[in-house]
Protein 1
Amino acid sequence: MKNNIITIFKKECTRIFMDRRLFLTAVVMPGVMIYVMYTLVGNFTSNMISVAEDYKYQIHVVNMPESVNTIVSQVPLNINVIPASEADIESLIQRISDRNTDLLMVFPPDFDELVAAFDITSGETAPTVTLWGNQARSESSSAYYMMSDILEKYHYSLTHRFSIEGVDLATDADIFGAFMGALVAMLFILFIFSGCQAIAPESIAGEKERGTLGTILVTPTKRRDMAFGKILSISLFGLMSAVVSMIAIMLSMPNMVNLGSDTNTNFYEISDFLLLGVIAVFTTLLFVAILSVLSAYAKSVKEATALTMPVMIVTMLCGMAGMLTGGGPDEIIYYLIPVFNSAQCVTAIMQFEASVGNIAVTIAANTLYVLICVALLAKMFNSEKIVFDK
């Protein structure tokens, strides 16, 4: 009995360790992928709540008093103080609301004289410094807390001889969009991938295992047509799965954000959902095309499923890129990167910053990648070594 156990043990160990693909995908790859994923997730999370170290805050100031100017100049902060007039206040408030600049500070005229003459026992209203910021923009939020901290310390040093009033220009739509842009892009990409992953490995690798793929290939059907047919059929089911998942997400998001029962959360228009649908279609085609190539390369369904793990990790990281970038970048080059481009388009749509040009580039790029995968899959179907490799 002991000899039988040892014999079987040696046989299985030999099978596992001699099969390099199985060893790498089942033993080495999970650890490497987990390390890479958690390292990058930590970086993404840190960048989500912080501002680049070399960023220079744009702070507009009306009636900057000499006392505050002296304090600000002595603090080692990377800020650009821009003098402004009272006539500029309305336009600057609009720019902050549009997330085009960081902060507006308005002091009363002759602030230093008013503070020196103010009697805290008089019961009168103290001179007020007003700060306008936008919490939906991380740079604006950081600038607001930075300057309010400086003013608070000065406020206490003068025994409360002036007051500070903060105005947050972020609307419910801004807050909702910032949250959705950071989270939904990841869920959107992940659910589409999950729907495709559940079907694609079985479609080709399963037929190789059962020995039916070779029978199909002896028909006069062109290899390219067969590749297209498989990708389109799998994409249909993958897209159906993604649609159901996304409907559930959209219905549950208002409760997750918890803006309040009286708050309207119907911020998105039909055009936004149509754009999401278009992105979903071409992203599904891309995933199915990639997974089909991996499925054709694999010897079995189990190996095909293991080979999808790196793609899944990359997919998650691309989905989380919205947390890192804070919105869709303007550079066209980003929209040529597969998967990442779809995630950035979704982020931009959810944050009400969708660009038709960027979406068009994404569609064109993903279509090109799908055609490349189709050509590669057709070529793999022509290879007896791949088709009959079990």
Protein 2
Amino acid sequence: MFTIRVAFILAIACACVSRPTFAFCPPKGERKARVAKEPKDDVTEATRREVVIFPLKHAKAPALFLALSQLAGRESAETRPQFVQEGRTNSIIVYATRQQIALIRTLIEELDVETADDESKDVTMQMRTRMQVMIFEVDLMRDRLNDVTVKDLTARAESPESLSKALAKLGDARVLYRVDQILDSERKSRKTVFGASAPFVKSSSTSKDGTRAASIKYEDIGFIVEASGAAISDAIGSAQLEIEFKGVADSDIDIGSDVKAPVIRNFEQSFRGPFESGKPIVLFLVDAHGDSGPVAYVTRIQFDIEPL
């Protein structure tokens, strides 16, 4: 009867993605179900999902289900892990990728602990989340363009200094913006804006008497960060971060009288989901369009959960 009940719940958890078949492992500790392989055309190793059952020792399944669902709700529908609570066995059933399951397992271990009565108050109310964001601009050498990956940069991003040294080996690197702020404890979004109205030469001309005149245009440039998030435990939290950037630089195109045509660059980056306190997150993009050399924008994000 138990096997039939769990199989039914698993079918519900996976219905939004596919209809796999299951073979259960012995009911000892965490249990994992084998999911029939999906077509290679649709699923890669990184996106393939599997089912894992987490029996809880101390936490209550409904409460933990709510916390996990709120956390997953910040991800897109395509990548969002699925959860089902099994109140009868006090278990959480997870349908997600291996990477997501690894983080969910850590989160469940943090939350599934015995709590004394006098500590029943949510400990997260005694914590705050600090967010640090640094945006680097790097003039990449074209022969190094294919050598740069987010995985390699993340491995070298243990500190802002170590990442800066790694980027300097790829080309001329500089810090554009840096933010250090406390997120709202009630998950209300906070916006940080840096900017200026920068002049640049739109065109130039020379009159018959040799007088040179330039047409100046002003462009609003800057950096906007909008973030929200909070701690779930003293080691893990969830956050949502949106970044907008606009800048002006010279190109290699001559528009007359030794004046170079301006290049206006815009980009948006975002992060949504769980984070580990003190562990850096790296976002990376490259603009290799046009005759000028490729320019990379590397964003280092770090969330730190601190006691009040």
Protein 3
Amino acid sequence: MSTPSSGLRHTLSPRLVGMIAVGGVIGAGLFVGSTSFLRQTGFLIIPLYTIAILLMIAQMRTLAHMTAHKPEAGSFIGQIRNALGARAGFIAGWAYVLYWCATAGSEIIAIGPLFNQLTGLPGTIGMVGLVALTLVTNLISARAYASGEAALSLTKLGALTLFIAVGVLSWLWPSLSGIHTSNVGITTASLVPAGIGAALATLPLLIQTLTGFEIATVAAMESPDPVRSVSHAARRLVPQVGFLHVASLALVLTIVPITALQPGHSPFTTALSHMGIPVGARILTAIVLVAVTSCLNSALFAASRVLYELAETRDAPANCRVLSASGVPTRAVLYTAILECAVAGLGILSPHDGYIMALSLSAMLIMFTYLFANAAQIRRLSTATSPGDASRRILAALTFLGFSLTLLSIAFTPAGRNDCLLSVSTMAILWILAYFTHRR
């Protein structure tokens, strides 16, 4: 069986790789930010999220096919380099590192108020404490990180499953459950509350809440069975996690009137209040803090491993290749943590603009990276003649088209133009750097 040709140890089982992927997906965006989606989409959230899920399934299928073809190439960044050349690998790799650093920076900023709400202590204590905790966990060993991440991911999955179970029980049998709800049901006002156009405009945001599954290809570099690990994430985890997203948000709309959803407040907290669960807000705050910590943990792992991979091809500082006795690229982990804290520092200096900028940049960078991955698959299969290659090339082309249209739809919105300008400028800088570092 082929494994990635790196010095990293292969200690992660397919189950742990899957839990790592889940850790990068379910974050504060679902638990808190989804209020804005629901107010714009109403019950159109179901077909729109279905489109987003299908697009992510197609993307993960493409990444799984690439891994199966050449597992020794490493993560999907290595696959891009192998198919499109050194410059493309440089650009995609650094874009992916910056994506996770921007994401982690926004998560660090979010820790402060959540920790203060939950404990009453200064938010800075929570920010420093959880950043230190994730750093130490990542420095111990890949398996120690993965085991901790699995526990956090299972907590998030369990919370969503429990919410769905309690919501269905209270909606169908309020007298039996002892939980009371207004049973709003499907109303005309909740079907298309802000119009078709406003609902369609949320599709890029919905896609963003599902990005992160590609971490499976990064974690698979440390798995004895990378092909099975990535295939597991593509075939099972994306549909399962996507279902939890759709079912939980649709259930909220059957419990809470659309007008009762307030921006900045979690729709899950509002639903729990309507069901007469007074401690719901506190429980949810703890769960969101777990989700943020989990995402921060995964961001540090994913970015540091790709930084290590870039160092192997001389696209990052050479000391990022240095491994500890337990097989951890310690310098890459430390450099990544510094970059993440730098992004968080900028956000703290400009609380609103910095936070929004970090989120917007991360959303655009990951989609550009997906475009590189699909282009690599199309290029690889351009002369292939094996059975099924034609359908795989079509799948990659359709996925490329889907993400291209998503980026264009963002560019044509007033709020999205600055986001596009920032991300395109970042990609242009990376292209210039790639040109001068790979002139031969």
Protein 4
Amino acid sequence: MTDRNEMTAAFSGFPARARRPIARFVADRSGSLTSMALAGTLGILMVGALAIDSANAYLVRNRLQLAADAASLAAVKALPDTDAARALAMDYVRKNLEGPEYTDLAGITDIEFGEWDGYAKSLASSANDPDAVSVVLNKRHGAGGRIAPLLLGMIGFDGFQTGARAVAVKGRISLNCSIFAFRNGTGIINSSTSITGDVCYARGVTSTTNQKAEDFFGTTIVHSQVAAFSYTDKNFFPTGGIETEDFDEALDDEEGRLMSLAASLAALPPTTVLPDPLELSGGSTITVTGLTGGTTVVDLSGFNLNGATIRLSGDSQFVFNFRKKDGTRGNFDFSDSKIELVNGAKTEKVFWNFVTAFDVMVNKDTNVFRGTILGPTSSVIYHNPADFDGMIAALDINLHSMFDFYGVPPLEGSTGETPSRLMH
């Protein structure tokens, strides 16, 4: 652009009277401030418009979610009558979405029925005895599936895409399994002094040795789609009997719960550092002091206790996460050792979580073991008349040689029917 001197020289041939206003115009810079102010004002207006339209989109989506929740919970009570359930769902959608912007409720509502898979956390379409209903609200009348903007439309923005989904599942039987073999794993129960708690075998499990368990205070619950199951009727006597039907959904739900629990524990950052691998013997003791009212987390790659004690102290949740980073199987050996719980520590709040595959061995009759073993890809061998309070949930489980097991499930609850619940 021509600078000030050049512009002054260009008009030097003009009469003096004409040159003066031109010179003043060239020297004037006040217009640049006006342009900057205008740009700043437009920026502020854009930010404000975005905030207003975003808040409106959030409110609309929240309203859709509440409507979907109410509709699905109402509809699931009418199952297996899908016609009645559909009518109830639409009735609750209408009650919760009144207003001129919702004039085509049938067009914005998708209702599906099916069977809920607690393991996969998905809805499988089924016309035969459905136990779940999905309600999806994904469009707003006149906005092509989007929430029409209040202000941003001035710059060509066509709105926020939104929707809400709720799946309600009928109340089911809930389980308190003290021994749980994960799907496609194995289970062996052979020669016990006693079992207190339910033994559960998931889909695809092979369990052909169930015998010599005459002091068995609980129920054996078997998925109808196990790979193989057999027992010796002369000396395998669970007081609650053996259930091989009607518990498939409950077993799938319990497996999903345990898998989710293992994954959530594995994601916790460590709070306490111990020697790794942890190896103790010869009467030595190590104390882990818990975070009162919180969660104490330890990461380890190996564990070998032989004639030693690990003392857990305090009213805390204790989580020991075991993982091998090199892809090999890990080892957990607990022999002639003890877990002591003092100063408010509780069995049901202690977790031995095997994130990667481990071979877990708990043996010797002097053992005192406390807590829940979670090993979706691990094997557990527990034998000899040790003192074991807790739970074992693993891929392969072998309990034998006069063992003594007292089951304490890791979460509170009792066998019975759960209320209908929402899955978003």
